[in-house]
Design a protein that fits this description.
There is one protein chain. This protein is mainly alpha-helical and about 130 residues long. It is globular. The N and C termini lie far apart (about 45 Å).
Length: about 130
Amino acid sequence: MNKIFLLIAIFICSLGHAKGNYNILGVGQNDCGEFLEVYEQSLKEYDDDYLEFIHEATLARFTDYAKGVITSTNYANMLVAQVYKMSTYPQFAPQDATLERLLYKNCNENLTTSFHMIIESIYVKNQK
């Protein structure tokens, strides 16, 4: 039974690779307007600790997604550098506050762009 699932998974992955596209899942498929809404809600002061926690956790969904994209891109760059025997390769590792400000700035300038595409553009602009 496990072999059947493995074959199905390989088929699905190869089909997506052959078409040259992939689906963005999670908060990456949202547009930047939603991120800005969540970011601005997290800046407000609340009398209720629970509400404050909820807004911080909602913002963390976006920043954690961004960290995942950045980390996986860093790892992919490392693998490419190993294959081509490169001594250096581009990396980007922002602190949380820096990442939030970069996301806010870029999303504010591109409201209708998908959140995932904004993260990729931030990575390209800031990699060293």
